[in-house]
Design a protein that fits this description.
Domain D-glutamate N-acetyltransferase-like C-terminal: 145-338
Organism: Sphingomonas aliaeris
Shape: globular
Structural class: alpha/beta
CATH class of the largest domain: Alpha Beta
Number of helices: 11
Protein name: DUF1611 domain-containing protein
Number of strands: 13
Domain D-glutamate N-acetyltransferase-like N-terminal: 65-139
Distance between the termini: 27 Å
Pfam family, one: DUF1611_N
CATH architecture of the largest domain: 3-Layer(aba) Sandwich
Length: 349
């Protein structure tokens, strides 16, 4: 699978990352926390030579398992941390593996909140070996306060019932579908994985709260009237920890259309035990109510399901039933097909 979106415009930070990558999975045991690795596997497979996991890890991308030395022999130029854990921390137990990669001749690329240079001894070792420490989760140095001014052009935002269930994949798939239809568009990355795929963007969860909406305005500036910005959503308006990022992104994006992303079968909020997932209807209602503050004409274009845990027949049946119940097209953008074509058409209507 390959993304077909256009590159990020110059209004967002752009970093040339050393590719190809060795994906580092650390000791992750929850697939949702390895979404960076899965995103790169699915949308930038040509840039990944394999994966490297520590003992105790139970999650795999399915790529060949390599040590840093073996990856370097196969042409890897960097080891990329493919984990997006709670708090964006780099555990002490990873330090030896990061130094191993440096000694194998690989640069380090990270999308964590914690900075690579803050890990004791890592910066000195990188300097000694002439290797780079690259932190992707760093916003531009200067960001504006949001104006709320309505911008020219069209915008679509992916929102979710929770974290890590398909907002990035949906945005990439929609951008690709528009390109295939000959429609001008940009995929606008707002998280570390999207930035690693697209080569640029703004890491919204690293932006100071007062500048969230302004960063979103900066990311999707004025454009031709028929141009679409397809904006990668973050978090959920219903998440007890991350709702602030979602709201700032919604207000600053001023989407004309939004797509609700959901994983059937998930019942509790990721990383927040005791919190039930909101219903799709609740997410639609809240997004419209809050989104109207900066775009009175906001509407829901449909629902994106992550049906990776279902077989094809079960997925088709569920999406058809829920589409009938909700009165909106429901599709899995990864499965594609007529259901996804209908979802795209409704967004463009």
């Amino acid at each position: 699978m390959t993304a077909h979106a256009h590159p990020i415009a110059s209004t967002a930070s752009t970093t040339m990352l050393p590719q190809p990558y060795l994906l580092f999975l650390g000791d992750v045991t929850e697939a949702g926390f390895a979404k960076t690795a899965f995103g790169l596997r699915d949308w930038a497979a040509d840039s990944c030579v394999g994966e490297y996991a520590l003992p105790g890890a139970t999650v795999s991308t399915g790529l060949v398992q390599l040590t840093p030395a073996q990856a370097a022999e196969r042409g890897a130029r960097s080891m990329l941390i493919g984990v997006a854990n709670q708090g964006g921390i780099i555990p002490q137990g990873w330090r030896a593996s990061l130094i191993e990669a440096l000694n194998a001749g690989l640069d380090l690329v990270s999308g964590m909140h914690a900075r690579l240079g803050e890990i004791p001894g890592l910066a000195d070792e990188a300097a000694r070996l002439g290797r780079q420490l690259i932190d992707v989760r760093v916003p531009p140095a200067t960001l504006p306060i949001a104006t709320g001014r309505k911008r020219v052009g069209k915008r679509l935002l992916t929102v979710g019932t929770d974290c890590a269930l398909g907002k990035k994949y949906t945005a990439l798939a929609i951008a690709g579908a528009l390109s295939e239809r000959g429609l001008a568009n940009n995929f606008r990355a707002t998280g570390q994985t999207g930035i690693m795929i697209a080569g640029g963007g703004i890491p919204m969860d690293a932006v100071v709260a007062d500048f969230e909406a302004g960063a979103a305005e900066m990311l999707s500036p004025d454009a031709d009237p028929d141009h679409w910005d397809i904006i990668e959503g973050q978090g959920s308006l219903f998440h007890p920890a991350y709702a602030g990022v979602s709201l700032g992104l919604l207000h600053g994006s001023q989407p004309d259309v939004f797509i609700v992303c959901h994983e059937p079968g998930r019942t509790t909020v990721l990383g927040a035990p005791g919190y039930d997932l909101p219903s799709i209807e609740e997410v639609i209602a809240a997004t419209v109510m809050l989104g109207r503050r900066t775009n009175p004409d906001i509407r829901c274009g449909g629902i994106s399901y992550n049906t990776s845990g279902l077989d094809a027949d079960e997925a088709d049946r569920l999406m058809a039933e829920d589409g009938e119940r909700l009165g909106l097209p429901v599709a899995d953008p990864i499965r594609g097909g007529p259901a996804f074509d209908k979802l795209v058409a409704n967004c463009l209507a």
